[in-house]
Amino acid sequence: MKTQRYLSAVAASVLAIVVFSGCSSGAAEDEDGVVRLTFRQFDPADQVEGLVEAVDSWNADHPDIQVDLETVTPNNPQQFAREANSGSGPDVIHMALADVAFLAQPRVLLPLDDLMSSEPLDGADQLLATEMTVIDDTTWGVPWTADTMALVYRPDVLADAGIDATPETWEDFQQVAEDITTGSDGAVSGFCFAAGAQQPAAQWFAINYYLWNHDQYLIENEGGQWQAGVSEDELAAAIDYFDAFFESGTTPASMQALTDYADPAIATALQDGTCAMTYMPPAAFRTVEEQVDAELATAPMPGGLVDGSTHLGGRALGINANSAHPEEAWAFIEYLMSSDTFATYSQYPASAQTLTELDVDPAEQGFVDQLPHSVPFAKYIGAPITTASLQELVNQQFSAVYSGQSDSETAARAILDTIEQGLQG
C-alpha cells in the first residue's frame, strides 16, 4: 500500500496541469461507514517519503478515517482557491505560511477557532509564526513545519585555523572569515555565499539577517503607514559590509554568479575544504551533507540567538471550508502536528514543544537552536511593494557594488528611492 501511494504521489507531482474532481464535498462516509479525506501537499515527491510513511501509519491505526495523500507541485494557492470557491478541493491543505493571508476567506478556508477550543492542540501556546495564520483574531491555519538558514561549516577547517567556536556577531564573523583566508594564504575562502544579482539569489537572507540584527528593516509599518526602516547611511554600511568579503578575497568573485545556497560550486568547495563557512536551510544541508565526504556541522547564524534576527519559513495546515468532515480533518491535523509524524518526516515542527521531543542529528543542532528565535517575513507582507520585488531590487543593487558597477552610497539611494516609489503605489 505504501509503495502504491508513493508512486501515485510521484505521478501527481509531475503533472503541469491537474484537473480535480471536487473531493472536499465528496469526502463522505461510504456505505461501510469509513470517512475518506484527501490531504494535499506541494513539496516534491522525493522529499516526502517520511510523510507518506506517517500517513500510512495513520491509516493503519484509524480504519474508520482513511486519508489519501495527494502531491501537487509546485505550490499553487490560486488553484486551491478556485477549487474551494467552486465547492471542491482537498479536505486538508498544505500551505506556505506566506499564502495563508491570501487564502483566509470563509469560502476557502474553515476558521479553526471552534475546533481548537473543543479539541485543543498540545503545545498550542508554543507554536511559531502564528502571526502568519491568525488574521484579525481569526485562526485560518496552524503552523506545521518550520525552517531557517543556519551557518554551515567544516569543523576541521575552523580547527586548523585555531577557531574553536563559531562567531556570534556579524562583526566577529567577518573577522574570523578573513582570518581563515589570510591564515591559509588564500587557499581557503572563509565565507562562501550565493551573491548573484537575480531575484532568487540566497544573499537576500544574509542581508536581511544582518539588517534585522542591527534593528534595521527595508520597510516597516508604523501606525498603519509603510515606510523605509533603514537610513541611507545604514543601508550603505550594510552594502559595504558584504562587499568587504569580496574586497578582501575572503569570498571568491565567482560567488557573484551563483543564486542557490546549495550550488554545486559551494558543495564542491565544502568537499575539498576550500570553503570554511556558508549558510543553508535544513533540506539543502541534508542534500549537501550526502554529497560531501567530510564532516559538516551547523550553528546559529551571527546574531541568530537574538529574537527576530533571522527569518522563519515553513508551512501551515488548513481545512477546506467545504469539507464534509471538519472534525475528522482536525483529528488528522492533530496527528500531523505530533512528534509521531516528525519521527519519520524529515522536517522541523513549527512547535517549540515538539522540537524538544525530537531526536535531532547533532550536525543539525544549529537549526534547532535558532528556530525558536526566528520570525517570519510577516513584517514585509501587506505592503504596497511585494517581498519578491524587494528581493530583486536588493540583490541587483548589492551585486552591482560587488562587481564594481556602482558604489554603496549610490546603490543605497537607488534602493530607498525605489522603495519610496513602491510604497506610494
From TrEMBL:
Origin: domain of life: Bacteria
InterPro entries: Bact_solute-bd_prot1, SBP
Keyword Signal: yes
A Pfam match: SBP_bac_1
Residues spanning the signal sequence: 1-27
Keywords: Signal
Protein name as catalogued: Bicyclomycin resistance protein
